[in-house]
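Hi V.,

Quick status before I head out on leave. The structure for the redesign project is tokenized and pasted below; the design run finished overnight.
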């Protein structure tokens, strides 16, 4: 039974990472996602068999999970939506949390977990040459084509590369080898080819945060320490080179709008400000910019009564599906534009402020469990991987609050995120808290 689960997971990874390529071959995106959902449900059913055999259920952060699931149903019941909306919401979003719990309860062997981990690394690496193929064949003109993963999620070109970059940063901090910096540059090229500036700024933050945690692990001091100072100095040197390369190569990042343009910090800062507070000339759409969207979403909830502030408009209210009347519900129902892609907006509009708080606490609880493992781990090769996962969880929060919804429900990165949590926290089962059924 466990081997069947391993093969299903292996197939799931491949389909999730080649989803975009399969779609380009003519297969409908809905059918690909349905297959992904079916594979996760099969894993969940297999995990139930193991729960019955063991007579216990492993529920990581069970209080927050059950509270969140219960709140989803409360929000739905307080709305006037029919059951189809709830089903589509759970299918789009909660399916990946089910994937995490299925893995926790199947308990793969360490060899199987290592094989799956290595498969994910290979699948991420494949995205680099795929991006260059896009550059050669399409001249980089189609922002939404991201490697083999997607033909419709442009934000993925920023978020996806930062996952392996987090691992490369951790390896670099440990080994100090230039090849990891080269690897980081190669993954940055995915964002560069898709004209994404955000990847550079998030890279800065990720590099510094992980350096702080690494310095704490090595020296037991967070800031005032010679070793930490040397780490930061070296990192700023490399990041400055990356910044200069990015600003001159990316046409959006320089005033000449061409490859090889000049470096103009004032122009770049103005561009970033305009991008975050985007307002198209003559447009009556609200929240085109990311910075404005959460406030506009809160205003929309407030306008329709205090109940909506706390509970939202109901689970599934802004889910897009061929089974529902709206192609872009946020825009068509609430006049919220581009900035509505933020994860915090997506959750808030449907589950309200309380839903956002519970969901944030669920992931914060996971981060604290991972950090505990990081603090206790003595094997260097293990705590380097844990450090990388800490970076990915931090990336989750960055994405959720400031950039997109990719890590919420984009198949390839969402599956990777939850698998890495499972992979790290199951090095030692004692770090999990089994709950008797």
């Amino acid at each position: 039974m466990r081997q069947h689960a391993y093969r299903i997971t292996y197939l799931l990874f491949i389909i999730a990472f080649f989803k975009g390529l399969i779609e380009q071959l003519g297969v409908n995106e809905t059918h690909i996602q349905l297959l992904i959902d079916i594979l996760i449900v099969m894993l969940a059913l297999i995990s139930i068999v193991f729960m019955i055999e063991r007579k216990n259920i492993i529920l990581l952060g069970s209080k927050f999970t059950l509270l969140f699931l219960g709140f989803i149903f409360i929000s739905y019941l307080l709305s006037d939506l029919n059951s189809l909306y709830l089903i589509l919401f759970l299918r789009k979003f909660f399916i990946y949390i089910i994937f995490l719990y299925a893995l926790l309860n199947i308990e793969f062997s360490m060899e199987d977990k290592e094989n799956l981990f290595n498969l994910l690394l290979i699948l991420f690496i494949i995205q680099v040459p795929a991006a260059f193929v896009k550059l050669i064949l399409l001249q980089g003109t189609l922002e939404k084509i991201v490697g083999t993963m997607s033909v419709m999620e442009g934000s993925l070109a920023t978020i996806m590369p930062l996952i392996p970059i987090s691992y490369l940063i951790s390896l670099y901090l440990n080994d100090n080898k230039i090849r990891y910096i080269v690897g980081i540059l190669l993954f940055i090229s995915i964002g560069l080819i898709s004209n994404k500036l955000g990847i550079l700024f998030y890279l800065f933050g990720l590099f510094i945060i992980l350096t702080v945690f690494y310095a704490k692990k090595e020296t037991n001091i967070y800031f005032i320490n010679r070793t930490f100072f040397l780490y930061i100095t070296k990192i700023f040197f490399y990041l400055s080179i990356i910044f200069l390369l990015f600003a001159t190569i990316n046409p959006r990042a320089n005033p000449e709008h061409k490859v090889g343009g000049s470096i103009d910090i004032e122009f770049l800062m103005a561009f970033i400000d305009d991008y975050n507070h985007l307002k198209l000339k003559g447009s009556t759409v609200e929240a085109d910019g990311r910075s404005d969207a959460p406030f506009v979403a809160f205003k929309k909830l407030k306008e329709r009564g205090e109940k909506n502030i706390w509970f939202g408009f109901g689970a599934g209210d802004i889910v897009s599906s061929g089974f529902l009347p709206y192609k872009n519900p946020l825009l068509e129902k609430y006049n919220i534009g581009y900035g509505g892609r933020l994860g915090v907006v997506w959750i808030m509009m449907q589950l309200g402020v309380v839903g956002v708080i519970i969901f944030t606490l669920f992931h914060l609880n996971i981060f604290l469990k991972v950090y505990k493992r990081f603090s206790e781990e003595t094997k260097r090769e293990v705590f380097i991987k844990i450090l990388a996962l800490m970076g990915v969880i931090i990336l989750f929060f960055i994405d959720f609050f400031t950039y997109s919804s990719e890590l919420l429900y984009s198949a390839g990165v969402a599956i990777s995120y939850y698998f890495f949590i499972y992979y790290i926290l199951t090095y030692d089962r004692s770090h999990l808290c089994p709950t008797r059924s």
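Above is the designed sequence. The chain is about 70% helix and 0% strand.

G. will cover questions while I'm gone.

Best,
W.
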